[in-house]
Amino acid sequence: MKKIVIIVVIVILIAIPAFLLTRNSKKETPVDDSISKADVEEEAPEPEPAKPQIKIFNGNARPIAFMIDNNTNAQPQASINKAYVIYEIIVEGGETRLMALFKGVDADSVGPIRSSRHYFLDYAMENDAIYAHLGMSPQAQGDMALFGINNINGQVYDTGKPQTATSLYWRVEHKKAPHDAYTNTESILKIAQDKKYATTSEKESVLNYVPEEVNLDSPDAIVANNITIPYATGHKVKYEYNPETKRYTRYSKNKKMTDEVSKEDVTTKNIIITFARNYTLDDKENKGRQDVVTVGELDGYYITNGKAIKIKCNKTDRKEQTKYVDLEGNEINVNDGNTWVNVCPIDADVSITE
Which residue of 90, 91, 197, 347 has the lowest C-beta tally within 10 Å? Predict the structure, then answer.
């Protein structure tokens, strides 16, 4: 009997701690899951909003620069409104020529195409553009070799006849030579591929485009509804501002310009004026060919949305990109739209008025 009592006591002593342990474990505070899914989501970092994309300079298609005739007999020019930037610079005889740059757009007809002048190459290089022309001055020929310009000379491909399915450069019948040569973006890209030229480019835009609307509200800004740029006695360029469209309509030689393909008025969102020294070359051909000094700190204007500010156009080398800065040295913001860059004589009596 004594042994039985001892065994019962031992069993009780073993059972009591086990019971207490089980009881305490049931009373333990449960894991705190009070942090809800909503709280976790609130603490997660918000994704950054998509950066607005510039429309006028987009993608990695390499720009194509077309040398465009600006003689009265050449007007109207084809597809001019499709260019993202157009440079106008003086040539011999008080005329100007245009260099229209296209990026990632198709144009079935571009022209009339004319011969190259060497100082246009400075702006083709800074845009990393394939340069399409029809002939060239001796100076341009030398500089193309010197700088290794990816150029396409239409003289090699010109049929001298109306366009056919296989034409790369052709002649139109409604204009007279030498103002009748045309090509298109498809032809230039085909030739470029045959020549093993790169057709894509990662080079950034020369102009500092921004997606938000640029309004020139600084104290130094002036009203710019009417702009007149006299290149020579026989050639003046005018722009008229339309406050409804916030664009400028362009006039050349006292005539409103139109696009030969779309039949629409030639308009622009931005205008840049650069005052550059020009002089007649002594090239022994006595054709009055010009040189234009593009390098240095040049005075100018930036004009958009009915206002203008004075700027500096800084180019440190012929191959380097021009930096357009305000008078305090800050790079200017440029509206997301097409731009005409008027490189005019340094003494041109430019008028900017209401």
Answer: 347
CA 43 distance to own-chain centroid: 41
Contact indicator for 170, 154 with CB cutoff of 8 Å: no
Q: What is the pLDDT of residues 242-286, one digit of tens each?
A: 999 999 999 998 899 999 999 999 999 999 999 999 999 998 888
Residue 189 carries which DSSP code?
H
Number of neighbouring beta carbons within 10 Å of residue 49: 6
| H-only helix segments in the chain | 2-27, 37-43, 120-126, 138-147, 185-194
Contacts of 352 (CB under 8 A, 6+ apart): 222, 224, 226, 227, 301, 303, 308
Under a CB-based contact definition with an 8 Å cutoff, are residues 338 and 85 in contact? yes
- Supply angle C-alpha 124, 143, 292, rounded to 5: 65
For range 35-63, the mean pLDDT: 72
Whether 246 and 305 have beta carbons less than 8 Å apart is answered as yes
What domains sit in the chain, N to C, each tagged with a CATH number? 64-353 (3.50.90.10)
CA–CA separation, 54 and 214 (whole Å) = 13
- For residues 77 and 98, the answer to whether their CB atoms sit within 8 Å is yes
> What number of other Cβ atoms are within 10 A of residue 21's Cβ?
10
Instruction: Tokens for 172, please give them.
Output: 């139109």
Percent of the chain at pLDDT above 90? 82
Query: Which is nearest to 201 in space by CA: 111, 321, 337, 115?
Result: 321
pTM: 0.86
Q: Which residues contact 269 (CB under 8 A, 6 or more apart)?
A: 246, 247, 248, 304, 335, 336, 337, 338, 339
Give the sign of the dihedral formed by CA 247, CA 79, CA 295, CA 347: negative
Query: Any idea how long the chain is?
Result: 354
Q: Which of 344, 323, 318 is nearest to 334 (CA)?
A: 323
**Any idea what DSSP says for residue 260?**
T
Q: What angle do CA 109, 115, 127 make, to 5 degrees?
A: 75
